[in-house]
Amino acid sequence: MKNEFLETIKVEDGIYYHLSYHQNRYECVLNSFNVKNIQKLETYLDAPKKGLYRCRLIYNQHKIIDVEYIEYKKREIRSLKLVYDDEIDYSYKYSERNNINSLFSLRGDCDDILIVKNGFITDTSIANVALFDGIWKTPKFPLLKGTTRARYLNEGKIIESGIKVSDIKNFTKIALLNAMVDFDIIQNYNIKDIFC
After folding, report:
1. Cα 44 to Cα 39: distance, rounded to the nearest angstrom
2. Residue 28 Cα distances to 23, 60, 108, 133, 177, angstroms
3. Which of 92, 117, 163, 196 is deepest in the core (most CB within 10 A)?
4. Reduced to 3 states, what is the DSSP secondary structure of residue 75?
5. With b meaning 16 or more CB within 10 Å and e meaning fewer, what string describes 75-88?
6. Collapsing DSSP states into helix, strand and coil, what is residue 164?
7. Which residues on adjacent β-strands are paired with residue 53?
8. Per-residue model confidence as pLDDT tens digits over 78-116
9. Rounded Cα distance, 183 and 177, in Å
């Protein structure tokens, strides 16, 4: 539902990764609705002690709705299809992803999509991106300001840049950024070969 939000947290052998960034985003969402009684996420978490999991925490303005642990298997992404949508809005990490899923269905033989909004590249269906031209740059206008993206910006490892479709040819590498894969460079010899 549109008023339900999601945090996806990496958990390995009972250890939560970068929980402070997820707590911060959770608080920012609730603050935008003027919620005063904000909980600590860690009080709702009880991960399995062995294995790699995707913790999926769903909440709304009033409460934590559900927490589940899904064994994680990385989806290999080697190719992207540019898809265009100037109306899409995913400024919050909504649990409902119908618009993104509709765009993902247009991927054809590609592994994933790279969404273009108002001429600027944004995100894939599951990750922020960064492109390399001597410096790693992440789109200035992502659909969602992800926690891994925020961490890499804070650490000075990436910078923001308005990246148009026509700029892609100037880059040599592209990486996916999300809580589960961290900073995952798509392994292809030539960036042009990534786009199908």
Report:
1. 9
2. 9, 12, 36, 32, 20
3. 163
4. coil
5. eebebbbebebeeb
6. strand
7. 11, 71
8. 999 999 999 999 999 999 999 999 999 999 999 999 999
9. 5
Instruction: Write the single-letter amino acid at 143.
Output: L
Structure letter (DSSP) for residue 63:
-
Q: Set out the domains of the chain in order of their start, with CATH numbers.
A: 5-71 (3.30.470.10), 80-194 (3.20.10.10)
- Written as one string, the DSSP assignment of 89-149 is --SS-BS--HHHHHHHTT-TTSSEEEEEETTEEEEESS-EEEEESSSEEEESS-SS--HHH
Tokens 């992502």: give the residue.
142
Ramachandran angles phi, psi of 66, nearest 5°: -160, 145
Pairing of strands 182-185, 136-139: unpaired
| pTM more than 0.90 | yes
Q: Which amino acid, 182?
A: D
CA-closest candidate to residue 131, choices 88, 162, 87, 109 = 162
